[in-house]
C-alpha cells in the first residue's frame, strides 16, 4: 500500500486561480492589494521564500513592496521600515520574514494588527485564543485547508500535533479544536515521554517538530493522514519530519517539499485578499 499525496503545489495553483478572480473584482472597484515584505540579512532560504511570495503575488495581480535590509541592520532601522509600511496606503499587509536575529517580539508587536498577514501579532494570536475574527497564521490554516481540499475528515478526528512552536503547533491546536473544526487534539513535543504511543492513536498526524525523520512507520496507524511540516536542511536538501517508509502505512501524506510549504504561501495570499475585500466592504 502506498499513501495518496496531499498535493500542496497543485492546491496552491487552484487557490491562486480562485484568488486571481477576487483580485480582478477588487480592481474593478479601484482597489489593488499590495504585499510588503521586510527581509533582514542574506540567508538563502529566507531569500527564496520572500522571492516566491512576490512571484505568487505578481501572478494573481497583487502589487509587491519589497524592503531588503543588510544583516547589519539595527532594531531601530527595521522598526523604521515597519512604521513606513504601517503608514503606506498601497501596502494592504506585510510580513517581517523570520528569523531576523533581532528582538522579534518587539518587531511583530510594532506591525499594525490589521496589516498582519502572517497572523502572528500578539493581538491576532489573542483573538485566536478568544475566538474573535482576525488574520490567522498561514501555516496552520494552510495545513487544515490541504486536508479539507483532499476530503480528509477533520470533525471527530483524533489529531496529534508534534511541535509547540508559535508559527505552527501551538496555533494549530487552537484552530483544530474550534467548533467549526471539532477535532480532538493532543499536542506533543520534544518533552513527550512516549511519542509513538500518542501518534499511534492519531487519525491525523501533523509533524512540525523540525526533527528530520522523527515520525516513523511503526508509529503511524494504517490509513492515517500525515502532514510533514518540518523544514530542516540535510546536505543542502529540504528534509521533513516524516521518514520515507511512512508512505507504506499511511492513507495520505503531504510531501516535503510540495506539501504544506506552498499552502503557507496560499494562505498568505488569501489573508491579503481578505483584508483588501474588507476595505471595500465586500
Ligand atoms: N514572518 C514569516 N512568515 C513566514 O511565512 C515564514 C517566515 N517568516 N520565515 C520562514 C518560514 C518558512 N516559510 C516557507 C514558505 C514557503 C515554503 C515553500 O513553498 N517551500 C517549497 C520549496 C522548498 C525548497 O525547495 O526550498 C515547498 O515546500 O515545496 C517553505 C517555507 C515561510 N516562513
TrEMBL record:
The keyword Coiled coil does not apply. Gene3D superfamilies: Leucine Dehydrogenase, chain A, domain 1, NAD(P)-binding Rossmann-like Domain. InterPro entries: Aminoacid_DH-like_N_sf (IPR046346), NAD(P)-bd_dom_sf (IPR036291), THF_DH/CycHdrlase (IPR000672), THF_DH/CycHdrlase_cat_dom (IPR020630), THF_DH/CycHdrlase_NAD-bd_dom (IPR020631). GO terms for molecular function: methenyltetrahydrofolate cyclohydrolase activity; methylenetetrahydrofolate dehydrogenase (NADP+) activity. Residues 6-118 form the Tetrahydrofolate dehydrogenase/cyclohydrolase catalytic domain. The keyword Oxidoreductase applies. Homodimer. Belongs to the tetrahydrofolate dehydrogenase/cyclohydrolase family. This is Bifunctional protein FolD. It comes from Nocardioides oleivorans. The lineage of its organism: Bacteria, Bacillati, Actinomycetota, Actinomycetes, Propionibacteriales. The gene is folD.
Amino acid at each position: 500500500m502506498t499513501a495518496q499525496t496531499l498535493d500542496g503545489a497543485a492546491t496552491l495553483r487552484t487557490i491562486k486561480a480562485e484568488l486571481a478572480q477576487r483580485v480582478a473584482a477588487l480592481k474593478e472597484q479601484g482597489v489593488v492589494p499590495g504585499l510588503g515584505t521586510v527581509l533582514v540579512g542574506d540567508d538563502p532560504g529566507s531569500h527564496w521564500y520572500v522571492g516566491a511570495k512576490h512571484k505568487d503575488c505578481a501572478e494573481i495581480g497583487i502589487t509587491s513592496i519589497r524592503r531588503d535590509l543588510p544583516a547589519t541592520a539595527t532594531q531601530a532601522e527595521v522598526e523604521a521600515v515597519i512604521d513606513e509600511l504601517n503608514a503606506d496606503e498601497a501596502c494592504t499587509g506585510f510580513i517581517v520574514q523570520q528569523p531576523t536575529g533581532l528582538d522579534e517580539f518587539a518587531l511583530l508587536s510594532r506591525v499594525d494588527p490589521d496589516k498582519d498577514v502572517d497572523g502572528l501579532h500578539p493581538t491576532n494570536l489573542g483573538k485566536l485564543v478568544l475566538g474573535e475574527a482576525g488574520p490567522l497564521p498561514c501555516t496552520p490554516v494552510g495545513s487544515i485547508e490541504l486536508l479539507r481540499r483532499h476530503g480528509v475528515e477533520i470533525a471527530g478526528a483524533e489529531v496529534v500535533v508534534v511541535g509547540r512552536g508559535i508559527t505552527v503547533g501551538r496555533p494549530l491546536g487552537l484552530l483544530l479544536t474550534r467548533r467549526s473544526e471539532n477535532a480532538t487534539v493532543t499536542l506533543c513535543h520534544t518533552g513527550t515521554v512516549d511519542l509513538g504511543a500518542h501518534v499511534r492513536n492519531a487519525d491525523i498526524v501533523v509533524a512540525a517538530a523540525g526533527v528530520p525523520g522523527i515520525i516513523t512507520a511503526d508509529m503511524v496507524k494504517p490509513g492515517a493522514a500525515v502532514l510533514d511540516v518540518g523544514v530542516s536542511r540535510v546536505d543542502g536538501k529540504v528534509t521533513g519530519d516524516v521518514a520515507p517508509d511512512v508512505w507504506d502505512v499511511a492513507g495520505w501524506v503531504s510531501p516535503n517539499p510540495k506539501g504544506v510549504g506552498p499552502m503557507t504561501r496560499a494562505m498568505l495570499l488569501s489573508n491579503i485578499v481578505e483584508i483588501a475585500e474588507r476595505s471595500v466592504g465586500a
